[in-house]
Design a protein that fits this description.
CATH topology: TIM Barrel
CATH architecture: Alpha-Beta Barrel
Largest sheet: 9 strands, mixed
Number of helices: 5
Radius of gyration: 17 Å
Number of strands: 9
Length: 218
């Protein structure tokens, strides 16, 4: 039985669907996606602009979300956005899903504290490079809440981004306590070029492509 009833908790939902996880530690696995509405950042290459404004979402009671998950036929849940940590109800949602035995993943933009995220949740946290226009909003104290099963993601749009990300990886020793991925910004950085730079520098990071886009999945 769930630990929390959540009957009165409502969340602004952009969309609910089942697809393959396109990125992150569980890339390629089927998952139930909970995309929450609203974001506090405005990255210039954002690929989910439809989820950026909270008013575009549909308010939904948590039991309805849980019921959709139960009917999904999968055991993994990816909570994403927008920025999911903007909504207070997301913490109860994560607890409820964990209580049901789900394997829960959280995608977050790196600007809000991870302190209250349950330790059982696998966290995929961005560090926004210069091309995003959002680098100054990164909350570096979040690094203390990451483990080896979590991931820091850099979206790389150009060589300046690559140099910035390389400096962060090596200067902060990120690869020693969590997984680090470099993902080419769709349509801006070629995967081949990014792969060659990683190999040239023997950088201890994972090249990660957006599998869902390649396969034309939601």
């Amino acid at each position: 039985m769930p630990l929390i009833s959540g009957d009165k908790i409502r969340l602004k939902i952009s969309e609910l669907f089942v697809s393959l996880q396109g990125e992150g530690p569980a890339a390629g696995y089927p998952a139930f996606f909970v995309r929450l509405s609203g974001c506090n950042l405005s990255c210039c290459w954002c690929d989910t602009p439809h989820a950026r404004q909270p008013e575009t979402g549909q308010e939904m009671e948590m039991p309805k979300i849980i019921n959709r998950f139960r009917k999904s036929g999968v055991s993994q849940v990816l909570i994403t956005g927008g920025e999911p940590l903007l909504q207070e109800g997301v913490y109860a949602l994560m607890e409820e899903l964990l209580a049901l035995g789900a394997q829960v993943f959280l995608e977050t933009n790196g600007s809000l504290s991870l302190k209250r995220v349950p330790s059982e949740v696998t966290k995929v946290m961005d560090l926004k490079p210069p091309s995003s226009g959002m680098s100054k909003y990164m909350l570096y104290e979040n690094l203390r809440y990451l483990s080896h099963r979590d991931q820091i993601k850099f979206v790389i749009a150009d060589e300046e981004d690559y140099r910035w990300a390389k400096e962060k990886v090596l200067g902060l020793g990120l690869n020693y306590f969590t997984e680090v991925s470099f993902s080419p910004a769709w349509g801006l950085m070629s995967p081949e070029k990014l792969a060659k730079m990683i190999l040239r520098d023997r950088l201890p990071v994972r090249l990660q492509l957006q599998l869902h886009k390649i396969l034309k999945l939601p």
